[in-house]
Amino acid sequence: MAKMVTIGQTTALIPEAGSAVQPEWLNDGQSGNINFPYSSYKALATVGEVDADNGLGLTGYPDGQAAWLQDDDTVRVAYQSESYAHIYGRTPAPETYPQEMETGVTFSGSKIHYIDYSRDAFADFMGNDSAASDMVEGSGFLFNRVFNLFGEEVTPKNTDPEDKAAKWGNQTLPSGDIVEFASPLSETDFYFHSFCGAWYEPANRYGEGQGFSDDIWLMAEEWDIGFGNFAPGYAGKAVGNETMGLAAMAVDVANSVAYSVPALGQTGYEKIAPLNTGESDYVVMVTAGYNHGQDPAPLKIYVGRKGYDAEGNEITEDHSERDQFLGRNGMLWGQLYGQALKNKHFDKLGIVADEDGNGVFDDQVMNTYLTSQAKAGDSYKGRFYPTSFQWGGWDEPTAVGNTEMFLWERPEEQPKNYTFFNGDKKTEHQAIDPSGKARWFQNMTDEGALLGFDLKNLAKQLKSNPDADGNLLPDYLNYKSVVTIPATDGSLRVDVGDEGLAHKGEANPDGSLTHAIHVEKGVEKIVANDGLYWAKGKGGNVLILDEDSGNDYGERKIALPIKRNMQLRDEATGYFLGAAGGTLSPRYLAGATALAGAIDKPGTNEYSGSWDVTGMVTRKDDGSFYSKEELSGSGMQDVADLVHIEDHTYIGVVQARPESGGQVEEISGDAGGQVFMFEMNGFF
Asked: What span, in angstroms and rounded, lies between the C-alpha atoms of 8 and 463?
C-alpha cells in the first residue's frame, strides 16, 4: 500500500483566482491560479487525508465549520461532512466508513470531524510557507454518543418496534417500526443524512445567564428523507412523511453527546443559529431550510423557554441527563414561528397572499415579491406567529407529516388579520449579527436574493407580548425586514480586480468573461446563494457569501461590505474572493486535483461557509495570547472588535465532488473538498 497523505500535508489549493489558462496551473497535486485579487488562502486539511496516529480519514463534503480554544495552547477546528451515503451519493465511495458509538451502534453518512492545531503555529500560519501538517496535534469525532427522536440513546439496530433505542428517525415510524430503504446500507446500522450548515455557540455568549448554558454545536439533517429513498419518486416521499423525519440536533461539546431535538422541528434544516435575546429566560433561534421538501413555507424562528421540560414543568435534579441539558438550554419547551404579514400589507408590497385564488395559501408569494417588486433598500414589517402545532414530548412521537410541515398554507392556521408570507422552501444560510443585536441576514436561495431581519426590543417583546394561550411563550414577535439584494438582474456586480476569468464554454467562447457576472446564467445578480457569514471588526462589517448554483464556469465566493442599516456599503457591488471547480474546469479536464490522484470526473464545486478566528490568533502588546477564559462568553468578539476588519483571519471550506477518487475513495471518504484559512484585503 502506498504511503497515505496525512492531515495537512496537502498544500495545493482547491480555490482558484480564475480559470487555469496557463500550463503550470494544470499540474496534479499543485495549485491552479492563486493570484487572488482580494484574498489569500492556505490549506488546513483536505478530504481523504488521514490522521498520522490513528489512521482515521477526513470525509466530505466539508460543510458547517467553526473553531474554538480547546485549551490555551490548542485551536480546535471542527467541520461536518455533508454526506448522503449511497442514498443520493454520486461518488466512487458514497458510504463513508462506519463510525461506532459507545453503545456499539454504527453510522455512515455525515460525520463531525475535529482537528487540533498548535495555537502558536496556527496564529502564524498565513505568514509562512509551512504545511498545516506541521501544526496538527490530533483529530477525532465531536461526539461518540447519540440520542434519537424518541429520546433514547441509540443502540445497534433491530426490528423490534418496542425497542425505540435501536432506531434512527429518518427510517422509523412513530410506532417504532423500521422502514427499510429501497437500497439498504451495506456496512452500518444507520446513517446521518446530510449535515450541512452548522453553528457553534459558546456558553453565556452575551453575558452570564444569557443564551445557552453550555457550549453547543447545532446541526441538522437537511432536505427530506423520502423522495426516491423508500420507493421511486413521490411514492417514496409519501413514505418519508410517515417517518419521524430529519433530526435537528445539539451536541453537548464538553461531554461528546449529540441529542436529537424534536422541539426544534423534524423537517430538515440547512442551518440553525441562535440570536441574543438580551435576557436569561428564553432562547430564540433562526431555523433556515427545508420543510421536508414541502412547498411553500415561511421563514421560521424557534422560541424556547429555558428551564422547562417537554410538558412545561420546571426542570429539577430528578430529570434525566438528557432533559437537564436540553431543558436548561431552552430546547424542550418551545414552538416554531413563521414569518407573517398583515393582510393589508400584501397590497402595499404589490403582491397577493392567495395568488391562484383557491382559498389555500399554497403559493410562493415571497418569490413573486423578490423577483418582481423588491428593490434594494425597501423594507416592511410583520410578525412571526406559531401554528397550532407544538411538540408533545418524548411520549408522543410524531410523524414529520403531522408536525407544522403542512400547516403554514392552511386557511384555518392563518393568524388573525395576518397571513404567513410563504415562499420557496430552499432558504439556506442565515448570518447572525455578531454585535449582539437581534438581527440577521437570510439567504433567499431559490430566488437569489438577500434579506435582513431585526427583532427590535426582543427582550421586551419576550416579556411583554401577549400569551393568550398561557403556554409560557409569546403569541408573536414583531420584526422589520429590509431588502439588501433583490432577485433581479443588475442587483449585484462583482469586482474581480485583474483576475476572475471564467472557464471557456458555450456561454464564454473566447474565455474573456469574468466572474463579475454569473456567467452560466448571464446575469448580474447572486444565484443560489448558500453559505453566509457576518464578520465585524474595527472599521466595518462584511458578509461572506457563497453560491451553490451548479455553475459549470466556476462557483463564486464573494465579500459584501455592509452598512449599519443592513444595506451594501457599495451600491450593487461585491468583491471576488475566489472561484472553484466547474464542469468546464481545465484543471479537472486535465485530471489535476489538490490531493494528487483524487480526480473522479469533472463537475461543479461549492464554497460553504466561513468562520472568524481572529480572537484566537490575536496577540497582546506583550506577545501573549488572550486566554481561553478571557475569550469565553463575548470575549472572542470583543477581541475581534479591536482588530481592523481588514486584518481579520478566517477559516472556510470548499466542496469538490470531482476530487473524490484516489485516496478519498480508498478511505471511503465520500466527496472531496478542503478546509482552508483565508484573509481578505484591498476593498475595505
From this structure: 49
